Amino acid sequence: MKKLFKKLKKIMPGKTGLVVAAILLVYAVGVTAAAVIVDGRHVRFYMTGPEELELECFEPYEEPGIYAVSAGSVFGEGKRHLHVETSGNLDNTKLGEYTIKYTTRYLLQEYSTERKVKVVDKIAPVLELKYQEGYQATWMTGYQEEGYTATDNYDGDLTDKVESRLEDNRMVYTVTDSSGNTTTMVREPLYTQGKPEIILEGGSEISLNASLSFNDPGYSAKDSMGNDMTQLVQVTGEVCPYKAGSYELTYSIQSQTGDTVTAKRTVTVLPVNNPDIVSPDVNTIYLTFDDGPGPYTSKLLDILAKYNVKVTFFVTGANSKYFDQIGRAYREGHSIGVHTYSHNYKSIYSSEDAFFQDFNAVEDLIYQQTGSYTQLCRFPGGSSNTVSSFNPGIMTSLAASLTDMGYQYFDWNVSSGDAGETTDTDTVAKNIIDGCSGRRASVVLQHDIKDYSVNAVEQVIIWGLNNGYVFRALDVSSPHAHHSINN
Ligand code: ZN
Predict the structure, then answer these.
(1) Is the pTM of this model over 0.90?
(2) How far apart are CA 380 and CA 468, in angstroms?
(3) pLDDT tens digits, one per residue of 363-377
(4) How far apart are alpha carbons 386 and 486 in whole angstroms?
(5) Coil, strand, or helix at residue 43?
(6) Residue 309 alpha carbon to ligand 1 centre in Å
(7) 46-85 pLDDT, tens per residue?
(8) CA 353 to ligand 1 centroid distance, Å
(9) How far is the CA of 391 from the centre of ligand 1 (A)?
């Protein structure tokens, strides 16, 4: 109101206050009416296009057009076109809001109007994927990026802003410019998508008899292009070959991207059937000698040969100097069985694996000396020992495993007393004779590393032969004289 009043005063200098009052009164009725009535010398702009428009950056601004006319009763409505000047600081290289100002003059008075122009970026960045000649992604390594570039009409290089991810074996790339325009591209790599195959020799289910060792029948692996990947196969799981049961082995290859291919094999370890125990039909003495061979073994073999008596040796690895006596004994018709290689209780009874490792060493020794393995054995300390009690249950477990493998373990029912009770040859002989007297099947415990025990053998043989006893070497069907297992 104040502004308009000022304007009016300016237009009509020198008029009386009364006139001014009249004008104000008229003005109160309405602006249009006032303009028409008082002088009509107003200006009206006619704008083509909107008052607010958007311009894509870098595009030239093209003025949609505007014209101005005088709008008054004096010269006639719209009869006179006025010169319009356009001004403004529009910069189409910078996003932002600009004002275009249109100005005209009419009868010394300046009139203006405006148009808002918003410079915007609505063009999304351009993503270009690079391709390397002959490149082929593999299952093992996954897709290795071949490269890309991203440029935006406004932001310039946006390569650093590109985000890529693997989705269902497709690479998806996205980049967004500062105005929020996003471009997405997808690359489908030439993948050898086929996973490698693991081939199990012998099949996924195998069964074998319990034994001291398990050898995997083998496996191989190759990818869909035929490349050998066997070296990359990892085998997990364990087969306890000496214990009847079912075991699972897993063969797997893991790619560098974390994908895994697996194959499984079930290994069934079957117990070996032992022959039935046959009781002898005559009184029979089974002389057995532990802890040899040693310095007196040869002498013992001479005595046995003299009477054509066959006995059993449960051998150790203690005296390599006398290992050849194992072969001699075998060739002369005696039985050879496993005792222990080390005879170290703490070590062999610490675990089943430790036991069978030691056991296996004796089997190998026997094989070296005789050309064959044995099915006979005797536990160090006997099956009733309590020296193994530091490892509860080990004897029960070992006895079962040996039985699964078809071994027959022997204890004794006649003790010679040569392991501490006496060092007297006659006492040893008496102990044996007393123990065997009237017994159908006598399994006698002696040690051929004790000379006083070896020296008692001839007396025992003479007594036995004179009293109707038969001397025999043990075999798997012989009476085993098992003790009660205490651990
Ligand atoms: Zn022993």
Answers:
(1) no
(2) 32
(3) 999 999 999 999 999
(4) 6
(5) strand
(6) 22
(7) 889 899 999 999 999 999 999 888 876 555 566 678 899 9
(8) 20
(9) 19
